[in-house]
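Is this the right way to post structure tokens for a design question? Let me know if I should format differently. Anyway, here goes:
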């Protein structure tokens, strides 16, 4: 800017002096100023283009990073969701059957000796329980009591597996589905706890509020959840 001021002062002095020289200086100055302005404009334009290019590159990088993260999250969800559903479904139906009032047990006492031995050998009791069963007079009663706690332990394990998996991987499942998975788990877990308490403490009359809730609401919630998970994994808009 100091150079420009000096030029203007010089030109001003020449113009004041007058004569043909002033016209010549004016033409020279005009030509010079136009080139100078063009140069400055081009320079500034290049600077703006460079800044704009930098902004565009940064924007492209951010968009690419967001898309990459989104793809990875969706892929993780598609890996996690079927497994979460499988574990919840397995635990639900096991507990549903376990707490049902309709239970059937084999009449061990009415079996012939060979059939009885084969049954005891292949049943799900521990070896020490099998030995006790062989010695029992009321084999049917003993078997019913001991197999109850075996099935109870299995129900506990399946329920815990489903819950633990959901807790560990729930961040990859959208909030709505995660909440519904937790809801159905709470319903059958509370029914299981109620059933175990009745058996352990010989509650009479038996508490059945939680079990009734499972019987009335459980199947409908599971079917609705299954449909929603299926739509999540196979959206109709995909055209598949």
């Amino acid at each position: 800017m100091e150079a420009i001021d000096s030029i203007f002062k010089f030109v001003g002095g020449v113009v004041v002096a007058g004569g043909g020289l002033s016209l010549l200086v004016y033409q020279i100055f005009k030509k010079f100023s136009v080139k100078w302005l063009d140069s400055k404009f081009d320079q500034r334009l290049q600077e703006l283009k460079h800044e704009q290019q930098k902004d565009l590159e940064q924007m492209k990088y951010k968009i690419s990073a967001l898309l990459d993260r989104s793809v990875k999250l969706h892929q993780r969800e598609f890996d996690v969701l079927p497994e979460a559903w499988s574990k919840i479904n397995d635990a639900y139906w096991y507990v549903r059957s376990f707490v049902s009032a309709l239970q059937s047990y084999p009449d061990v006492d009415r079996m012939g000796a060979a059939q009885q031995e084969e049954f005891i050998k292949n049943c799900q009791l521990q070896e020490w329980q099998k030995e006790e069963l062989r010695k029992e007079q009321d084999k049917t009663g003993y078997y019913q009591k001991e197999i109850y706690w075996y099935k109870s332990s299995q129900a506990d394990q399946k329920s815990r597996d489903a819950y633990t998996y959901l807790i560990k991987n729930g961040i990859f499942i959208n909030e709505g589905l995660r909440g519904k998975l937790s809801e159905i788990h709470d319903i059958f877990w509370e029914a299981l706890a109620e059933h175990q308490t009745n058996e352990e403490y010989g509650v009479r009359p038996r508490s059945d509020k939680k079990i009734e809730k499972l019987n009335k609401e459980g199947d409908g919630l599971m079917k609705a959840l299954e449909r929603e998970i299926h739509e999540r994994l196979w959206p109709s808009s995909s055209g598949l």
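Format looks fine. Someone answered above. Worth noting: The CA atoms of residues 63 and 162 lie 36 Å apart. The mean pLDDT is 84.
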